[in-house]
Amino acid sequence: MKPVVVALQAVWVMLASRTLALSVLAAVTAAAVLAFGFGAQAELIILLLALGALTALAETAIRARQQ
Questions:
Q1: Over the stretch 30-66, which tens digit does the pLDDT of each residue have?
Q2: What does residue 3 show for φ and ψ, rounded to 5 degrees?
Q3: Longest dimension (CA), the chain
Q4: What distance in Å separates the CA atoms of residue 58 and residue 1, rounded to the nearest whole number?
Q5: What's 33's DSSP letter?
């Protein structure tokens, strides 16, 4: 297969995993609490969402290598 197709398939597998979905949900929940509960600035919310997404991708990649 072409490298692009293989890369897209790997991304699809990561997005379909339950671990990734739960990690991103936790990041979005924390950002929502900060945004609506404490009135945090938009820059902080965006940074927290980006950090949560990167952490979720890293966790999914590490778990995939262990299995």
A1: 888 888 888 888 888 888 888 888 887 787 778 777 7
A2: -60, -35
A3: 49
A4: 25
A5: I
